[in-house]
Structure formats: structure tokens, C-alpha cells
Protein 1
Amino acid sequence: MSKETEDKSAKPTDHERQATKRELLLAFIEYGSRPTAFVLIAVLILAGFLAVKQPLFELLGRTNELKLGEWIHLKAETAGVSTELQKLASLTKQQIQLFLIVGTKRPGYQITYNGPESKEENYKALESAGLLENIEIERNPDTGKRDLSWKVTAQGERLHALLMEQVISAIEKSK
């Protein structure tokens, strides 16, 4: 072999270098672009998560603070009975219990209730809250007992249905 041939094989020409660069570029595009894209997407997702991490954790932390009362208040606003719910909340425990007992509409049925909550002032409080109407209290001359009759208002019916739905749902979820 001549010295000239050895020098040629040892040193690539500009054309050979360009061809090698093109081959490397094509190989990178063919085999390296997908993993590079995955890494770039992962970095962007991680950066996005880090940007919203604090507000996201604050929001998740607040879900524990959301109480049943707040949930019922939101539902009452949607049903258009938030004023009635506020009025009910201002009543005594006995008056609220009385509403939960007598506040459902029972078409075709006349019920009587003689529990400890069944006092004239409690019915009147429910009437002034706009939950009951047409309250009539009569004394039976033969027995001396009083007979009560009332009608649940449309708002009272909607509020009672909402409250009972929430109570029943909570009970069913506790299974």
C-alpha cells in the first residue's frame, strides 16, 4: 500500500463527513425523536403539575371542610328554598323536629301527631316561617283532646323533600 492510500483512509473527506452527519441526523430523527418527545411531554406535565400543586392541594383540603349543612344550603339555593331553610334554621330544635315529622305531603291522608313537639306555638312558628299554613286547632268536646289540622306550603314541601333526600342518602351511604 502506498502512503497516499493510507493517508486517504485515515482522514475522511468533507464529503464523507457530511454524509456521516446526515446519517447520524437521520438515525437521531428515526430512533431518538420519540423518546425525546416523551421526555419533553413528561417535563411539561411535571411543570404544569408543579404550577397548580398548591391550589390543587388547597382545594382537596377544603373538601373535608364541606359539611352536610353547606351542601344542603347549596341544594336549597338550587331548589329555590334557601330563605325557608334559613327560617327553619332559626327555629328551635323541637320546631325543626316537628317540621321533619309533619312537613311531608300525604295526599288523601289526615295524620295526627301527639308527640312532645306537637305544641300550638311550634305549629305557629312553622306557619310564620312559611312552611305550614291553614293551621286549625280544635278541642274535641268528648275527649278534651285537641285536633290539629294543617297544610304544608309548596315551599315547605320542596324543603322537606330536599332534607329527607339528603338524610336518606346519607343513611344509605353509611351501609
Protein 2
Amino acid sequence: MSLETIKKKIKEAGEKEAGEILNAGEKEISLSRAETAETVKTMAEEAEKALTQKRAQILEEARIRADFSRRDFLLAKKRELIDQIFKAVLKNLANLPAEKKQKFLGQCLDKTKKEIGDQGRIYACSADWELVKKLLKQHSKLELSKKTTPGVGGFLAVNNQMELNYTFENLVAEKREALESEVAGILF
């Protein structure tokens, strides 16, 4: 065998081996691309699934917040309506016709006399000062202070041991505590 033949055989063997290596490399690259494509596809599907779940979660949270906001708004409106009703009651009580107001305050003075007797002082609201003065002459020997108490009507009775609050604001507030749920039940 000649040197040329040996070179030729070595060259052919090298080319063949290089071809096989190249083919093997291309197969490996092709397989790697397929695996990468599959991995990317899986990751994209998982990301889409996570995104869908997150979107659903966000929408549910938004729905819950909207529901709470709606409930808070309705509750505020109901509270506002109940406040308006009790303000109207207070206004109606303050604007009672003279005869009814005299009878009502007379009953309050009778209760006051039973509670504290004739020892004490009355602080009338300025709107009812004259009427309370007139009623005290009929109902009690309690002293009427020239000093008035704040409010739209009624009075405050005070002695050394207790204070009785018959101001219209206080009377309505006491009734409100007792009747608010009943009023809400009627309205809503």
C-alpha cells in the first residue's frame, strides 16, 4: 500500500467519522431543540394556567370588594334614613302643640317629683323655660334655675344625689336605643 492510498483511506475514514459526528451533533441539536420546544410549551401552558387562575382570583377579590362596598353603601344609607327618622321625631316633639307639650312636660315633672321629691333644681331648655315655670307652680316645689340647659325642649332635674335628663334630645336618644332595630325592621 502506498502512502497516497493510506492518506486517502485515513482521509475517507476521517471524513466518514466527521460526517457521523456531524450527523450525531445535528441529531443531538434537533433532539435538544425538540426538548426545549416542549419545555417552553409546557412552561407557557403552566404560565397561562397560572395567569388564568390569578385573573380569576383577582376578579373574585374585586367582586368581594365591590360586594362589601355595596353593603357598606347600603348600610350607610339605611343608617342615614334611620337618623333622619329620629331627627324628625325630635323635631316633631319640639314642635308639639302647646297643649300636648304642656301635658307631656307635666308628666315628666310628675316623674321627677317621684324620683327626687321637692329637693332639687330644674334647668329648662330655653324654648320651654316659661312653660316649665308655669308647670312647676302646679306640679312641684322644685326651684327653676334662670340658667338654661342646651336643647330643643324639655329640662334637666338635679339634686345632690342624681340628675334626671328630660331634654327631648335625651328622651329621643333613649327611645332610639330601644326602638332602632324595630324601626329598621319596619323600613327594611
